[in-house]
Design a protein that fits this description.
The chain is an all-alpha fold. The chain has eight helices and no strands.
Length: 201
């Protein structure tokens, strides 16, 4: 890996290269990391908040905390392999989000639903259909809240974050097989409770 990456090539650099370049004194490298992972962090923390504004605040807090600790943490990343920046960032975001939820916030109701968030219901939806949808959302929320912490985390990272089981294992510091087992149990339990669909392959 070259000691430095040209500023014009930052967007094409790996996370590991960007971390090294940032340590070498190029602040724009961290900006690229923010742009690259902002959507992922938002999708994860959104499930712990009732409003998108709160999620946006958590995203900002996660990156600020990462920036504050970056010089100490980046130096520990191995130069011989990919930097675990995403896993480290996700851990920061999850911890902030869980703290936020414990302070009185609720999980988003559609954790395992395929429908987009923050889209107004179809104006043609009948009152009965609206009540049924609200009831289902309440059931899903209750079922998710009933999951053990580890199952909740694995489910969130897999469905919201789109992380592979290998990345989930690295993020949560568990084995890949354990991540798969936790996800299987979480989906099975949700499906039994509310008919939640299995993950699409």
């Amino acid at each position: 890996m070259p000691a430095r990456v040209a500023r014009s090539g930052l967007a094409r650099a790996s996370d590991e290269e960007l971390c090294r370049v940032f340590l070498d004194g190029e602040p724009a490298a961290f900006d690229v990391l923010v742009m690259r992972h902002r959507a992922l962090v938002f999708s994860l923390v959104r499930r712990y908040t009732s409003r998108p504004e709160d999620a946006a605040d958590l995203v900002q807090s996660a990156f600020l905390r990462a920036l504050e600790a970056s010089r100490r943490v980046f130096a520990r990343f191995s130069p011989s392999g990919p930097a675990p920046f995403r896993a480290w960032l996700v851990r920061i975001a999850l911890n902030l989000a869980k703290n936020h939820a414990r302070q009185g916030q609720r999980w988003r109701p559609m954790l395992v639903e395929a429908a987009p968030e923050d889209v107004a219901p179809d104006s043609r939806e009948s009152a009965q259909e609206g009540l049924e949808r609200a009831e289902r959302e309440q059931q899903v929320r209750a079922a998710v809240l009933a999951l053990p912490r580890r199952q909740r985390e694995v489910l969130t990272l897999r469905l919201d974050g789109g992380l592979s089981f290998r990345d989930i294992a690295q993020t949560l510091r568990i084995t890949e097989n354990n991540a798969k087992v936790q996800f299987h149990h979480a989906v099975k339990r949700l499906k039994a409770l509310v008919g939640a669909p299995e993950e699409k392959s």
